[in-house]
Write a structure and sequence with these properties.
The complex is a heterodimer of chains A (410) and B (393). With 410 residues, chain A is of the alpha+beta class. In chain A, 49% of the residues lie in helices and 18% in strands. In chain A, the strands form three sheets. In chain A, strands 5, 6, 7, 8, 9, 10 and 11 form a seven-stranded mixed beta sheet that branches. The longest helix of chain B has 44 residues. In chain B, helix 2 packs across helix 12 and helix 8 runs parallel beside helix 12. In chain B, the strands form two sheets. In chain B, strands 3, 4, 5, 6, 7, 8 and 9 form a seven-stranded mixed beta sheet that branches. Chain B has a four-stranded antiparallel beta sheet with strand order 2-10-1-11. Chain B is built from 13 helices and eleven strands. In chain B, 54% of the residues lie in helices and 16% in strands. Chain B is an alpha+beta fold and 393 residues long. Classes of the chains: A alpha+beta (410), B alpha+beta (393). At the A-B interface, helix 2, strand 5, strand 6 and helix 9 of A face helix 2, helix 7 and helix 8 of B. Chain B: Belongs to the ABC-4 integral membrane protein family. Chain B: It is a multi-pass membrane protein. Chain B: This is ABC transporter permease. Chain B: It comes from Mucilaginibacter pankratovii.
Chain lengths: 410, 393
């Protein structure tokens, strides 16, 4: 039966090449846009380099003070982390790092912009950086405030040139201080801004005294790692309990907000408690997807109706010989799904090409889009959705066709 | 004749309604793209307001160990004097963190005669600012050494803020703000600076003369250098900064590079939106083309009959073109109803003229699109031989 439908579908496709082209063009280009978008979101949100232990980590990166008229939101101070976050009992490890700052260095009359980040020892245990050479900063080096650094592969290339000689042991100058390179890691795209940096320095070498600032706000963030995934919820509650008991630092404030977030929650947090980043991001993406899909779908419906009406004699004959409306609707939807899947295959090919160009142009350094199984899964879902949406209404109109008029039309 | 055409359209309302919805949606898409593009262009056409070429922004943070305010002031004043005395430096001035083209914004609000204005950029800088950035004073004067460096009672505002508060009248000499305790006298009006890049509108702004305690938190020095300044010179400037503020993190950025980076925030979404819209429109155009083509094929009998009773080819093709244009007009009327809500409700705070022009352009675009699609089909219809068409029937 299905084989027959398939044959009919192909025959119909061949009959009106222009219509086939319109349908396939609409489907494939819409799918390409959606696929590239999903690949991008998937890369930004789901790429687990270097935080492979994401499922048992929580990210504490912001604190917000709110009063009647004023609002202040920023990263955490080091003293806040050592006074409150470090006192938590559930986490097995707590990675602390500063947000990335930038500085310049001048090598051979050439200017290089360096992003730097201060990290503690646990940072290297919680995160699984891929070391191209050397090793992470050790606990002893951190304790002694040794001037060592882990640099990214890109920085190595930019600072030491393109030759493949090892960088470990060489010195890199940043902020007027020379640091000895002890490791080189695979670079991150800037979209993972919580962890991105060109050089990672021991937290103890920070130029400002770590606990000089006794306030809550500062430039640091923490990642707390639970023993197992079951403990994550407990860790979240424990932190919420700590925040609830925080003394309020001034009379202009009446609320303190700070959360231990999962990666995605933390990524989309806007820094404003009143508007949830999750809702905002979700609405924006859905609206865009609907906007992109609505027009081609309408177009498909239009074209499909036209095509079906062209086949009114075929339908009339089949009806006259006793085919039920249900069979006809079923047949048409199957035909339409076959068409969408054909468009889908073209769409997947097109999106691979587009992704290749995006990667090649390096719009965002180190962000390489790829087609993986998640994205392909989305593609198939979109295809089915498309096929049904654009097939059901024309099929319903077709099944309502009167036999006599259908036959007379010829 | 129009009555007749409407009747024909009404007879096929089911098919036509889908087509109308499609044209309506493409009208809205084009309207959105044109609004965005026109707004960006009208902002781009306005002058930048200052000469950002060869202006560098040095970032520092306050890490001096001394807490004595006099020695803090002395260190920073000496530093600025040393920078200015370097060869190739034209001028230099301290500035708060919200230098042009940075993501750092600091805004405030004020009430003037009961009118509240919010989202005013709050800049803190010194008497060298105008000569460093080359901004023009429209009226009044900029700060000079005689203005008290402590609690400031005078202020400079930009042109946008002046127009919001005083309209066409001169603002120099008037008092700013309703609160008698904090009100300041306006001594000058400065030209607008497009602080957020080429494609964003200049926001209202206050330029405060910083006091001596501000050195601790301002965090930026703007330096205008002569065209010969290269990386080697920048290295020297860097060493001077690092030597004077030993524990501070220093970064030197070039405003022209920052502008390029900042412009991307506006341009990249516009480019993506245009590409997507272009594909949508091609899609819709092909769709309309297909549907019209089918309609004509179905009406061969009718067309053949008209030709047989003596209608010239031009009249037949004109009928089809008119029909398509009436469909487009119906969609545009509905579309315009939605589109006109944007300026009426002041969504997104864009000037009404941008929306109106965007509507006009979208309208022209849709008519052209439908015209091109239907002209070809009309020509095909005109070529139908009555004998052949009627024979088929």
């Amino acid at each position: 039966m299905l084989k027959n439908y398939f044959k009919i579908a192909i025959a119909v496709l061949k009959r009106r090449k222009f219509f086939t082209f319109i349908s396939l063009f609409g489907i494939s280009f819409t799918l390409t846009i959606l696929l590239v978008m999903t690949a991008f979101i998937d890369k930004v949100v789901n790429d687990n380099y270097p935080d492979k232990k994401r499922d048992r980590s929580l990210y504490i990166s912001r604190i917000e003070l709110r009063g009647k008229e004023s609002m202040n939101s920023s990263g955490l101070s080091y003293s806040y982390i050592s006074r409150y976050v470090n006192k938590m009992k559930t986490p097995v490890k707590i990675a602390i790092s500063s947000g990335f700052g930038s500085t310049n260095t001048y090598v051979n009359n050439r200017k290089i912009v360096i992003n730097y980040k201060y990290t503690n020892t646990d940072f290297w245990d919680v995160l699984d950086f891929e070391f191209v050479e050397g090793k992470p900063i050790s606990k002893q080096q951190t304790d002694n405030a040794e001037r060592v650094t882990v640099i990214s592969e890109d920085m190595k290339k930019e600072y030491f040139g393109d030759d493949n000689s090892p960088a470990v042991g060489k010195y890199i100058e940043a902020d007027n201080i020379k640091y000895r390179v002890c490791g080189v890691v695979k670079s991150l795209p800037i979209t993972s801004y919580l962890l991105y940096s060109d050089i990672y320095l021991p937290i103890t070498t920070s130029k400002t005294k770590l606990d000089a600032d006794k306030g809550y706000m500062g430039g640091y963030g923490a990642i707390v790692l639970a023993k197992n995934t079951g403990d994550v919820e407990k860790m979240k509650k424990e932190y919420a309990g700590i925040v609830a008991k925080l003394p309020i630092p001034g009379k202009e404030w009446d609320h303190i907000y700070s959360h231990a977030d999962s990666y995605i929650e933390g990524y989309v947090r806007t820094g404003n408690e009143k508007s949830s980043g999750m809702v905002y991001a979700f609405t924006a993406i859905t609206l865009f997807a609907l906007f992109v899909m609505l027009l081609p779908t309408l177009n498909l419906v239009n074209v499909n109706i036209t095509r079906i009406m062209e086949r009114s004699s075929e339908i009339g004959v089949r009806k006259a010989f006793g085919a039920s409306s249900k069979t006809l609707v079923y047949q048409f939807i199957v035909e339409n799904l076959i068409l969408t899947f054909l468009g889908g295959i073209i769409g997947v090919v097109l999106s691979v090409v587009v992704m290749y160009f995006i990667n090649d142009a390096q719009f965002i350094a180190n962000l390489n889009l790829s087609l993986n199984f998640t994205v392909l899964g989305y593609a198939i879902l979109t295809c089915i959705f498309f096929g049904l949406l654009s097939g059901v209404y024309p099929a319903w109109r077709m099944s309502k066709l009167n036999i006599v008029t259908a036959l007379k039309a010829q | 004749m129009f009555k007749h055409l409407f009747k024909m359209i009404w007879n096929k309302k089911k098919q036509n309604s889908l087509l109308i919805v499609e044209i309506l949606l493409s009208f809205m898409v084009i309207f959105a793209v044109f609004s965005f593009a026109l707004n960006s262009y009208s902002n781009y056409a306005k002058p930048m307001g200052f000469n950002y070429d060869k202006v560098w922004a040095i970032s520092y943070n306050h890490t001096l160990e001394t807490t004595n305010p006099d020695s803090v002031t002395l260190v920073y004043q000496t530093l600025l004097r040393n920078i200015k005395s370097m060869p190739l430096v034209v001028d230099a001035s301290y500035h708060s963190g919200n230098v042009p083209f940075s993501n750092n914004h600091s805004t405030t609000g004020l009430t003037q005669k009961g009118v509240q204005v919010t989202g005013i950029n709050d800049f803190f800088t010194d008497e060298n600012y105008v000569s460093t950035t080359g901004t023009k004073m429209l009226s009044g004067r900029w700060y000079n050494k005689t203005d008290a460096i402590t609690k400031s009672t005078v202020i400079v505002i930009n042109n946008t803020l002046k127009e919001k508060l005083f309209g066409k009248a001169d603002a120099v000499g008037k008092m700013l703000g309703d609160n008698p305790k904090t009100r300041q006298k306006i001594i000058g009006v400065i030209a607008d600076i497009k602080n957020d890049g080429d494609y964003q509108v200049a926001a209202p702004a206050l330029y405060n003369r910083h006091d001596t305690s501000a050195y601790k938190w301002m965090g930026k020095i703007l330096v205008k250098v002569s065209p010969e300044a290269d990386a080697a010179f920048e290295g020297k400037l860097y060493k001077l900064m690092a030597g004077s503020l030993k524990k501070s993190n220093i970064e030197i950025e070039h405003l022209d590079n920052k502008l390029t980076a900042y412009n991307k925030f506006t341009l990249v979404p516009l480019i993506i939106l245009s590409i997507v819209a272009a594909f949508l429109i091609i899609n819709v155009a092909l769709g309309i083309f297909g549907v019209l083509w089918y309609n004509i094929n179905k009406r061969r009998g009718e067309i053949g009959l008209r030709r047989a009773v003596g209608a010239p080819g031009a009249a037949v093709s004109a009928q089809l073109v008119y029909e398509a244009l009436i469909l487009a007009t119906l969609s545009i009327i509905i579309g315009a109803f939605f589109a006109v809500q944007f300026p009426l409700l002041n969504v997104f705070d864009l000037p009404a003229s941008v929306y109106l022009f965007a509507m006009l352009f979208a309208m022209i675009f849709i008519y052209l699109l439908v015209l091109v699609c239907s002209l070809y089909q009309g020509k095909q219809a005109a070529a139908i031989y009555p004998a052949v068409a009627l024979h088929e029937e």
